[in-house]
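Trying the structure run again after the queue cleared.
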Amino acid sequence: MSPADRLRRAGAGILLLARLSPVDRKTVLRAWTDLLVCRVKVSFPQATATRAFDDSGRKAAAAAVDHLLGLFGEAAATCVHGTRCLPRSLALQRFLRRYGAQARLRLGMRKTGAGWTGHAWLEREGRVVGDSEDFVRQFVPFRETA
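Done. Tokens:
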């Protein structure tokens, strides 16, 4: 991501925070934190603790999941360091768990002209969340073993 893109995202993030309620502003700040933490954990796994990406069970579900997904999507779109699918999915999973909502991480592959590409996404109650369902359908999910 270029410095100009980072600056554009930072400006969009400031505008986003300015138009939100105080509660939603705090929620977006938590989403940005989760995005950064999970990006670091994926980029530098040797420097992080071995515990799972999990803060579950600490708070009850107080907000509608669709509202949380919308706020997280806006936070991801304005996150200055950008987001790749695995750290974004891990961050969204962590974010939802903070509010008492569970989602399953899924990984899949697809054949391309040059080889294979992978993708990570979340599913909740049998549907794709935080990602394009049409895009996810292009990937064959790995079989669950446990």
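The first helix runs from residue 3 to 19. Worth checking whether this holds up in the mutant runs.
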